Give the backbone structure.
Amino acid sequence: MGLRTARRPGLVALLGLALAWLGGGLPGLAVAAQDPGFAGSSSCRPCHEQFYGLWSTSRHGLAMQPYTDALGAGLLTPQTEDLVAGERRYRAFLGPGQGFVRETGPAGDVTDYPMVQVLGGKNVCYFLTPLERGRLQTLPVAYDVAAKAWFDTVASGQRLGPHAPGTGAARRESLDWRDPAYTFNTACHDCHVSQLSTNYDAATDTYHTIWREPGINCETCHGPSDAHNAVCAAAPRGTAPEDLKILRIGKDFTTAQRNDACAACHAKMAPITAGFVPGERFFDHFDLILLENADYSPDGRDLGENFTFTSWLSSPCAHSGRLDCIFCHTSSGRFRQAADPDQACLPCHQDKAAGRDKHTRHGADSPGARCISCHMPKTRFARMARSDHSMRPPAPAATARFGSPNACQGCHTDKDAAWAGGHVRQWRTRDYQASVLARATLIEQARRRDFSALPAMLDYLAASDHDAVLAASLVRLLRVCPDARTWPALRAALTDASPLVRASAAASLGENREPPTLAALAKACADPVRLVRIRAAEALAGVLPQALPPDGRRAVTDATAELIATFSVRADDWTGSYNRGNFLLRSGDPAGAIAAYATAARLRPDATAPLVNAAMAKARQNDLAGAEAALRKARELDPQSAAVAYNLGLVLAQRGQAGEAAEALRAAFTLDATLAEAAYNLGLLLRATDPAEARELLRQAAALRPDNPKYAKAAQPLDPAVPGSGAP
């Protein structure tokens, strides 16, 4: 969610698109659990006994399962000490007929929460309990399978909070286990059960969630099997129908289709439809979280819970277009070459295997000589180990500069990154780490809104061999760059080969109303990929049809209809209503926007973005008192937000409250030293009372925004005798 100057009167810090990222996609097929086309995995067993056996014992088949005494006794060990979270203590009880977590309050009050379902089981077990209004909630204690230890569910995922609007760093420590982020119906159901319907009722904020089977069943990937079963039963014995009426991922799908089918669950993404079907394109149904998110280090290594797909898209193996997920993994999620993982690499990398000692600089039989040791190191987050699927070589130099993980120190725990980086440079005549550092530095600078290296950023975007993930990340981060040189580069990115780059470019062009931009966005509304179309339509919200090329108006209308549909994909998540509000506000409907923001605030009471943008809508209605109230509430929620303080300062200034306005604007500039708008407005406000400070603030604003002639003029000497000076 980026800060961007909106070039219109009134409040000028409209907060942008919010993505409600998920760690897994929508159900394999968007149907109700009772849909007669689905027969259940048991119907596959008579003809596919071997595969049924492999699936039913796999992590896919057991992604969620009911809690039983047998499961508790066989997989879990007793919790011997209470887990303390705030003023409350928690302990799991596993005895026969128990299976519950006891919460003990500060006054000795006790509540027992039954463990009705178990998620996971490979690294971690999470436990679900029913709460009010149909919610299935993740309990505050979870189980580390390898360590045989109980741990705090919320605390283990503490990197998750600071990067999501409404769960900022200032509030992370107080995040309760009952938070919607840990509600199964809202956040984590999509890839743990099959053929699910949440049946959310927005009017009562209630769920009536149902599913056909726990775990990921055969039909999630292969489609409904009723018709398949019927044509096979009708076929003469010993023959197979010409049309099997089933999705055959291994035989009929392309490499891209297979990868996209897996990515629906193995990606950190945001859904834009409710109907992904294996075989369809990922970016027709999802947006993807990239390196703009601080759960990635600037060089793209995992720091948080990122799943796989983003890293995979940066892999040279993915770039080849020949490798897909099921080359290394079975359809039930097992690793095909578990006994000798290097066998997965050898078909394409025989030259490296032939000179293993020289290539790895480790003994041929040592762990350091294994391909995955260097190219797929594991990182741990929330007690779970995940392999890096970017498959890039180690870059300890990036660790030294950015703190990102590297493979070398995963084994050599007694050494530092400088030691490892020195060896890598000594062993390789080509200093590949230099290019890693150069690219990562661009991301790191753009995250800080330091665009001093803008020419290098734009050169990277223009390079024909750029990495799509890195390029799209830069494009998203450039959304807040005030330099007009970004506009031609972003327009050019609308024609990039990657739909991820094209969609990101469309989103970042939303504040530019130059005719070439409008024409390019109108053309993008006819892009073959839905994600690009809706981002282009979003950028064009509020643009009058006569400002668009006549031959592009129909595409804009159609893409806008697709965009509006995305707001209802997850009615139980605040971001849909928030994004609807943004669309309505840009389209000139402040009353509708205020209603949408109110819904978002009801769903997520600690989210500040709906309050900030509701204030903007109220200001457009000349309701400055209402705008002030919304912003004061937002500031109570997040006193560290520069956007909140800045907008509050503007409203207070418009209401004639100069002293409080100056305090708020000063706070905004203190919180964000790149916010030229805050320095400029504070400088104007102080001209009469403190001309010396006003001059310095206006000078700083002009230095931060040398492209803005208004700032340059205001920074001129305040001397009435000087023609054209900035004196009032």
In short: Confidence is low (pLDDT under 50) at residues 1-13, 24-33, 160-172, 719-728.
